[in-house]
Design a protein that fits this description.
By secondary structure, this protein is an alpha+beta fold. It contains 3 helices and 5 strands, in the order βααβαβββ. The protein is globular, with a radius of gyration of 13 Å.
């Protein structure tokens, strides 16, 4: 089981680690009594952070059991979606690219 965290590509790199951490916690808090969440939290809790386009972000919101996060330093724009961990995700998730910083040292 793994939790997917999708972050919009245009979010500044310096904010992504904190946003992803908040997303993981927010998702747990919202769905802590969900059966899949309980299996995940009591096992090996894998997370996958992906960078997505605006269209991918909108399409992913149609999937059930998710939470959308906003960022106050970006005028409360929606920046991230976290999904309740599950064994199988919709096929589109296989095509999302893992997040990596644009600017590396």
């Amino acid at each position: 089981m793994k939790m997917y965290i999708l972050v919009k590509r245009d979010v500044p790199d310096k904010l992504v680690p904190v946003i992803a951490a908040h997303a993981s916690l927010a998702c747990f808090r919202k769905f802590e009594h969900n059966e899949n969440m309980q299996k995940w939290i009591n096992g090996i809790f894998k997370k996958v952070v992906c960078a997505v386009s605006e269209i991918e972000f909108i399409n992913a919101q149609k999937e059930e059991d998710n939470i959308v996060l906003t960022e106050s330093s970006l005028d409360n724009q929606e920046v991230c979606i976290a999904f309740v961990p599950r064994e199988e995700y919709h096929k589109m998730f296989k095509f999302f690219k893992m997040w990596t910083p644009k600017d590396t040292l």
